[in-house]
Amino acid sequence: MKIFLILSLASIFCFSLSNSIEDDVMCLQGVKNSLSDPANKLSSWTFTNSSVASICKFQGVACWNEKENRLISLQLPTMQLSGEVPESLKYCRSLQTLDLSNNSISGPIPSQICNWLPYLVSLDLSRNALAGPIPPEIADCKFLNSLILSNNRLSGPIPYGLGRLNRLKTFSVANNDLSGSVPADLASFDGPDFDGNGKLCGKPLGSKCGSMSSKSLAIIVAAGVVGAAASLFIGFVIWWWFFVRSSSGKGKSYGFGNGGGFKGDSTWVELLKSHKLIQVSLFQKPIVKVRLSDLLVATNNFDSENVVISSRTGVSYKAVLSDGSALAIKRLNGCKLSEKQFRSEMNRLGQLRHPNLVPLLGFCVVEEEKLLVYKHMFNGTLYSQLHGSGNANSQYGFLDWPTRLRIGVGAARTCLVTPCLSTTLYASKH
């Protein structure tokens, strides 16, 4: 019975050993077949010899001992190898060191690598063309002392699980495309181990995550200055367009043309002509009704020669009716009141009588055009008397200062009823 038990255990051991040897051979065969070897560095790997420890003499291969084909190390650096990390490594389960550095290995790092090589102590895949993220499953390699993944094209964050590898003494992910923050448990490694990753931050790199570099800050400040300047420029253009340009456009209506109307803007005169039969609303009913056509004739179609004065609120024209009576017709400029409001205001103003105000005799509304009818003042306006301009018979300086003072006090006592309309002060005869 004892002899049978011993023989059974021996047979099981021999079978396991045989399977282990076959697995390691399959591992190396798969590595040779899956990698491109333009320099024939792996040409010495021949598998015709089935003797014990035959594969241990292969270049870059080391076994646990010389009496069995159980691999402990596979080091193939700088051999111009290309292709992806061989899946056949899963048959080298006893492997502790894997070095494929300084080749042209591409593709991702297999997420199953720690399942393939559970006893891995040293992993060097640096200076290749590996891409994609660092698989978090590498944290399952509990015996790792050295992990070197520098000089690849790896992207994404550094897995926080790597900080739980208590045996890790050598670590480098320099010169990749990694981003995010360095795990706090890896902060004991030096800054050069993380350099070359533009979007990586953390204590080893001397930069706080969420803070900006001086270059980024300079770019943001410059962009802010340019944006502010552009906003000011756009604001100035809008202001110029709506105020200066519109004001200058209104100013053109005060300019003089050759014949009827205004220079560059005679459309409003044409509008009045198309409604010339409209009656002028007068507060004191005359014997003969006055129509808009009478005002057009009396002002020679609002010819510039008949302009008495132009102001911010409008232009006043001298109008001589067929009976010889003289009126002042003021075309309002920019009155925002609706027609109903405007008529209401006019009816109220028509009742006002003040010694310092030119009496409002009537008005006329044609669509957006609003005309006021005043009594014509032959002595001119207060402005012309004070400055010696227009129809004033005096020159500047004719009025003495006591007279000017009385005029100022009288003007201050005058009540201007509506902001839309500008009234004209009487010119003093004294």
From TrEMBL:
UniProt cross-references to Pfam families, sorted A to Z: LRR_1 (PF00560), LRRNT_2 (PF08263), PK_Tyr_Ser-Thr (PF07714)
Domain Protein kinase, residue spans: 302-430
Compartment(s): Membrane
Name of protein: Protein kinase domain-containing protein
Gene Ontology annotations for the cellular component aspect, listed alphabetically: membrane
InterPro entries per UniProt: Kinase-like_dom_sf, Leu-rich_rpt, LRR_dom_sf, LRR_N_plant-typ, PRK1-6/SRF4-like, Prot_kinase_dom, Ser-Thr/Tyr_kinase_cat_dom
Signal sequence segment: 1-20
GO molecular function: ATP binding; protein kinase activity
Keywords: Leucine-rich repeat, Membrane, Repeat, Signal, Transmembrane, Transmembrane helix
Organism field: Quercus rubra (Northern red oak)
Transmembrane helix as UniProt keyword: yes
